[in-house]
Every structure is written in C-alpha cells, then in structure tokens.
UniProtKB/TrEMBL annotation:
Subcellular location field: Endomembrane system
Protein name as catalogued: Protein-S-isoprenylcysteine O-methyltransferase
Topology of the protein relative to the lipid bilayer: Multi-pass membrane protein
Spans through the membrane: 12-29, 35-54, 88-107, 148-169
Keyword Transmembrane helix assigned: yes
Domain of life, source organism: Bacteria
InterPro entries listed in its UniProt record: Metal_cation-efflux_comp, Phopholipid_MeTrfase
Amino acid sequence: MKHGLLDLSERILVLGLYGALVVCIVDSIRADGFGLGNLLLLPSEGLVFLFILLRRRTQQVSARPGDWALALAATAAPMLVRACPERALVPELLAAFFLMMGTLVQLHAKWVLGRSFGCVPAHRGLKEAGPYRVVRHPMYAGYMLSHLAFLSMNFSAWNAALYMVCTLLQIPRLASEERLLGLDEGYARYRARVRHRLIPGVY
C-alpha cells in the first residue's frame, strides 16, 4: 500500500510539472514565434513522464525522505525553466543540434530501461546494454547536454540557477541510486566493469 501511494504521488507531481512546462513553452511560441530549440525541450522532458506512466511496479523503492527530495528536486528544477530566446548565446540551430543529441542519448538510455525507468531510487531490474556499456548513468549525461543546449539559447540567471541546482543534485542522487542497487550482487559486478558514472574517462 505504501509503495503504491509513493508511486502515484511521483506520477502526479511529474505530470503537474510537465504541464506547467508545456504552458510556458506554448506561451513563448505565441509571443516570440516558432522556436525549434524550445519546442525540442518538450519531447526531451516529456519522455520522463511517458516512461513513468509505462514503468513496472516494484517493492524495492527507496522510502528515505532524503532520496525522494533529491530525486524530485532534480526532476522538478529543469521543468521550471523559462524561454527567453532574445538572450541566446549561440545560434539557435547549433543549440538545437546539441539539444537533439542530448535527447537521443536520453531516449536510447530510456529505451534500454523500458519499464524499469523511475525518478526515485528503485530496483526494477538491471540493464547493461546500449549506452549502459559506456557509463552507468547515461540518461543523466543526456540531460546535462540538453540542459546546457537549452541554457545557451535561453540564457538568464533564473535558468542558469535551476540547471546548476539540478546538476549539483545529480551527484548525491546517483549515490542514493547506487546505494540501493549495490545490494544486488549483479550490480556490484556491473559497477566493477563500467567504472565511470557520467563521462567516460572523467567521472
């Protein structure tokens, strides 16, 4: 019962945040005209909600308040950004290209995860194929690339602060996920094989 309520709460929260992001981007398009880069952010963040809806249930989900706070804050922050294309630092097409690359990395990682995807640390089965052969958390690497691309064409102190908070939260978030998954001997062997979390040869 408790895990079911936690699962439902996570879905409702992410739906509300994504709805607010959609409204923000649509309002920006109405005010400033069609913006390819900003429009690409919707499928990028929308994949989070889609995969949460389709994921399988599990009894191995963290009930620690700190883990929930980290996961939800890191998920919420990028959905609170605001479009401000008049402050672009790079050409829109260049930023849109890197945003698309980040989205493809996310999509590949989420495709491999399938119904095992979630925001809050949980064990829904180990995945070691595709980009998980290169780094242990390729989805977050894709997020960081997409966030940097969106910020470069919508630069503001607000957006920069949100993405900085999100990035800083990812490190303890990864640690909380690996703490839960580390209880599985299979994950311990996987972690020994794939040594880096986000960036090959760096971290």
